[in-house]
Amino acid sequence: MLDEVPSRWLHLTVQSIGFTDELPADETDRIATVARTKIGGLAPFTMTLRPAVLADQGVVLLAAPRGPLIEVQQAIQKAAIDVLGADRLPDQTARFIPHVTVAYSNTSGEAAPLQARLAAITPRSVGTTVRAVELLEVSRDTHVYQWQTIAALPFDGSR
């Protein structure tokens, strides 16, 4: 069985920074300020969400191209390291697999029937323009991640 992610809560996580009970508000504010300068010069880019596939914890749409997404991830990571220090935020770039989870698995079962259903879905991929990122306070008190926006960081394309 799968728990579908409501469209409101669909997201692509680029960088985890820490637990809210471990990050004082002043550190969060400083990360947002530094990230705004690192992100601001980036140009908007087109991202394609590829066909749905099974993953360890559910059904995901892999995102491409990876290059611009890695650039965003590294900018956010550098901003957090500038504020927190490298000892509090290990490098996550090698583990970063850009994706959007559309459903989480809530039980184990045979994969073949679900894989066949996923293969029949059309359209097979969808594109969107990424113009900004948001720093979020995320919780998962139910079966889906939910959040509040801390800061919106638009791309202005100046670099």
What does the model show?
The protein is of the alpha+beta class and 159 residues long. The protein has one domain (2-154): Cyclic Phosphodiesterase, Chain: A (Alpha-Beta Complex), CATH 3.90.1140. 27% of the residues lie in helices and 31% in strands. The protein is built from 3 helices and 7 strands; from the N terminus they run βαββαβαβββ. A 5-stranded antiparallel β-sheet has the order 1-4-3-2-5. Strands 6-7 form a two-stranded antiparallel ribbon. Helix 1 (25-40) crosses helix 2. It is globular.
SS content category: alpha+beta
Average predicted confidence as pLDDT: 89
CATH superfamily: Cyclic phosphodiesterase
Number of helices: 3
Strand order of the largest sheet: 1-4-3-2-5
Number of β-strand runs: 7
- Indicate the overall shape: globular
Domain count: the total is 1
In terms of per-residue confidence, which ranges show pLDDT below 50 for 5 or more consecutive residues?
Answer: none
Rg, rounded, reads 17 Å
The CATH topology turns out to be Cyclic Phosphodiesterase, Chain: A
The main pleated sheet reads as: 5 strands, antiparallel
Q: What is the correct CATH architecture? A: Alpha-Beta Complex
Helix content: 25-40%
